[in-house]
Design brief:
The complex is a heterodimer of chains A (116) and B (109). With 116 residues, chain A is mainly β. Helix content of chain A is 0%, strand content 51%. The N and C termini of chain A lie far apart (37 Å). Chain B is an all-beta fold. The chains are: A mainly beta (116), B mainly beta (109).
Chain lengths: 116, 109
C-alpha cells in the first residue's frame, strides 16, 4: 500500500520560534497533499490543500502567513508554523492523494507539536 | 452545507457486536470511508464503500445506502484493542474528504 512519512514525530519549541514539518510520499507521486490539525478529543480539521507547483488553498480561518505550506516536489510537502504560540500546540497530520486513486487519502503518522 | 453525523460515544462489552452509524449530506459523492484512530495516533484505513451494500473484512463490515445517505460500521467479536475513535468520512465531488467528529468506542471487559 501507499506509504506516507512525516518528520519529526514530536517537537517541542519555545514560543516565538518557527517549526517545519515534512510530509513525504514514499512509493507514489502525490500531486495533492493535505494538512490537518487535531486538538485533543476533537476530529480532524483540514487546514489546507497543497498542490505541487502551486500555492496552497487554505481553509477559512487558517492564517496562511502563519502556516506556510510548500509543495515543491511530487513527493514532499512542508508545513512551517511561524512564530509559534502555545495555542498552536496540537497534533498535525498530513495526507497524500495518489492520482491513480483520487478518492482516497493516505495518512502520515502525525507530528505532535508542543509550544512552551 | 456539508454535514456528517455520527454518535459521540458508544460503550460495548468484550466479545459482543457493535454498530456505529453515520449519516451524511455532501456536495457530490465519491465514496465513504471508515477510519480507526487510537489516541495520539494518525487514522488508519478500515473500509471504503462506493456502491450500496455490505462490505465484509474479517471482524469488520461496512454498509452503505446512497439513497438514504447512511452508512454503518459493524464490529464483531469485540476485543479490548478495538477501543478507539471511529471516523466516518465522505469523498465529495472535489475528492475532498468531509469528516465526521468521530465516535469514541469504549470496550468493557
Amino acid at each position: 500500500g501507499a506509504v506516507v512519512s512525516q518528520h519529526p514525530s514530536r517537537v517541542i519549541c519555545k514560543s516565538g520560534t518557527s517549526v517545519k514539518i515534512e510530509c513525504r510520499s514514499l512509493d507514489f507521486q502525490a500531486t495533492t497533499m493535505f494538512w490537518y490539525r487535531q486538538f485533543p478529543k476533537q476530529s480532524l480539521m483540514l487546514m489546507a490543500t497543497s498542490n505541487e507547483g502551486s500555492k496552497a488553498t487554505y481553509e477559512q480561518g487558517v492564517e496562511k502567513d502563519k502556516f506556510l505550506i510548500n509543495h515543491a516536489s511530487l513527493t514532499l510537502s512542508t508545513l512551517t508554523v511561524t512564530s509559534a504560540h502555545p495555542e498552536d500546540s496540537s497534533f498535525y497530520i498530513c495526507s497524500a492523494r495518489d492520482p491513480d486513486r483520487p478518492y482516497e487519502q493516505y495518512f502520515g503518522p502525525g507530528t505532535r507539536l508542543t509550544v512552551t | 452545507g456539508q454535514n456528517i453525523d455520527q454518535p459521540t460515544e458508544m460503550t460495548a462489552t468484550e466479545g459482543a457486536i457493535v454498530q456505529i452509524n453515520c449519516t451524511y449530506q455532501t456536495s457530490g459523492f465519491n465514496g465513504l470511508f471508515w477510519y480507526q484512530q487510537h489516541a495520539g495516533e494518525a487514522p488508519t484505513f478500515l473500509s471504503y464503500n462506493v456502491l450500496d451494500g455490505l462490505e465484509e473484512k474479517g471482524r469488520f463490515s461496512s454498509f452503505l445506502s446512497r439513497s438514504k445517505g447512511y452508512s454503518y460500521l459493524l464490529l464483531k467479536e469485540l476485543q479490548m484493542k478495538d477501543s478507539a475513535s471511529y471516523l466516518c468520512a465522505v469523498s465529495n465531488s472535489n475528492y475532498q474528504l468531509i469528516w465526521g467528529a468521530g465516535t469514541k468506542l469504549i470496550i468493557k471487559p
